[in-house]
Structure of ATP phosphoribosyltransferase:
Amino acid sequence: MSQPLILAIPKGRILDEALPLLARVGIEPEADFHDGKSRALRFATNQPDVSIIRVRAFDVATFVAHGAAQIGIVGSDVVEEFDYSELYAPVDLNIGHCRLSVAEPDGLATGNDAASNAMLSHVRVATKYPHLTRKHYEAQGIQAECVKLNGAMELAPSLGLSLRIVDLVSSGATLRANGLVETSVIMQISARLIVNRAAFKMRSAELAPLVEAFRRAVGVRDAA
Ligand code: PRP
């Protein structure tokens, strides 16, 4: 018998929406998964041929791209930031909706429209998304110097690390609480099912029905 399929899912806010979706697919993690005190990272499920790992969002893409996990759930922000050729993203799961935006201090905001940016040749930006940030500014003929942070980007402007940040925005509450305003939206985001391309070929008998089950589960929710 082959090894169980490894399904990588992200910690954080996608997880709450992913669990009901997994239930509709017929995958229920073992009880320990829901134990907040558990330090376990890998979990059995009700399906003997599927295990779950719970990792940081960016690491979901890394595990799946390298084939250490065969399938995963992650935001389209992560898929686009890494642009891994080994990843196949066949299903928009219609959960985890948010946007990737540029923000600046309220009052100091120069605006990020083409007219304001026409004056600029260079910007410094704190972000977890250097690739998408550079691409966004390059399209306007501006060179972006990215300061890579892994969280709490919103602190950067008030502490003089950078005037601008590029980060995820959902309700906008974090920006408001830190005196920032959104000046442009780079992309709308939702969670995607991702699959390792090589695994999809080699284990298609297991993976193709699973991908179809996710597709159906998304459709069921849409129709509800
Ligand atoms: C994300 C993001 C923002 C915040 C935006 O962080 O980085 O800080 O959510 O959400 P809002 O617009 O609803 O306030 P998250 O809490 O997921 O944690 P992270 O900083 O570890 O990414």
Observations:
- The chain has eight helices and eleven strands.
- The pocket of PRP is lined by residues 12-13, 151, 167-174 (CB under 6 Å).
- The helical segments are 13-25, 57-65, 76-82, 114-117, 130-138, 173-177, 197-202, 204-223.
- The chain has two domains: 5-96+190-218, 98-189.
